[in-house]
Amino acid sequence: MSLDGKVAIVTGSGRGLGLAYARQLARQGAAVVVNDVDERAAADAVAAIQALGGRAVAVVAPVGPTETAQALVATAVESFGRLDILVTNAGVLRDTVLWKMSDDDFDTVVNVHLRGTFTTVREAVRHMRQAGEGGRIICIGSPTGQRGNFGQTNYAAAKAGIVGMVRTWALELKRAGITVNAVVPVAVTAMTATVPYFAAAVQAEEQGESVPAFFRHDLGFGTADDVAGLIAFLGSDSAEAVTGQVIGVGGDRIQIWTHPDAALTAYQEGGWSYDALVAAWPKEFAGALQSVGEHFPELPDEFRPAAP
């Protein structure tokens, strides 16, 4: 097995995508530290991994505080003797438009996603650098962090921030042999299950049927298990040369996202004054403006939700 002898931590792995990641890592031979705030979910996840013949223990604690990060790393080392892989998946949502978003809505999401990723990676890296055997850091991003999404100021900020940290950490940890990558999953989750556009795909998954080809191929939208293979690959020795990347995955599709770069560069001797910009903008700049948000193709008639 590709991860035989490795030890992984997966935050937010009591259910959903996190559980799929933990199970796939275990299938490939890794021992797994499961984490969730729900004690029953964490215990069930451990039992599911053990039923596969894998090894797992649970840490029931909210991600964000440094104390949780320390407990996760300590549990990995005490239970299995080492730490090789960290997957930062834990998250919460508090969706609402900007003018209705409270301080608590913003702080809660940023604390779990962004601060939780920072504190957990920091603690894992401290151990990995001291151990001197390299490691794999896999941080979970989102299309929202790449493109924006209506009603998700807090989530977009956190997920975009995670990608910024990943690029920075890839530079800082290269000499230590620690790779750092972001994965952008697109799959049936508790969040996408509420979106009418994905209703046919969600219904198929819930009924144990195959997600229709339109969703799997055209949208790159599938199941949690479709994402898990990439997580295991990035955690393996086969991915030792992959670092600092943002990789999208879902259904039948995988994508490597570009890093931000200038879409247009123009020069004006003496600088760009107000008058110069007014004159030049329609001709030189307007055509290079970038779109925001995700843009989906029109749903085929067979997948359109029935009218209420």
Can you lay out the helices and strands and say which pair or pack?
Layout: E1 7-10, H1 16-27, E2 31-36, H2 39-51, E3 56-60, H3 66-80, E4 85-88, H4 103-131, E5 135-140, H5 143-147, H6 153-173, E6 178-185, H7 199-206, H8 213-218, H9 224-234, E7 246-250, E8 253-256, H10 274-285
Parallel strand pairs: 1-2, 1-4, 2-3, 4-5, 5-6, 6-7
Antiparallel strand pairs: 7-8
Helix pairs in contact: 1-9, 3-4, 4-6
Describe, in plain words, how this protein is organized in 3D.
- With 308 residues, this protein is of the alpha/beta class.
- It has ten helices and eight strands.
- It has a domain at 7-187 and 223-256: Rossmann fold (3-Layer(aba) Sandwich), CATH 3.40.50.
- An eight-stranded mixed beta sheet has the order 3-2-1-4-5-6-7-8, with helices on both faces.
- β2 (31-36), α2 (39-51) and β3 (56-60) form a beta-alpha-beta unit.
- The longest helix has 29 residues, at 103-131.
- The termini are far apart.
- It holds the Pfam family adh_short.
- This is Dehydrogenase.
- One of its GO terms (molecular function) is oxidoreductase activity.
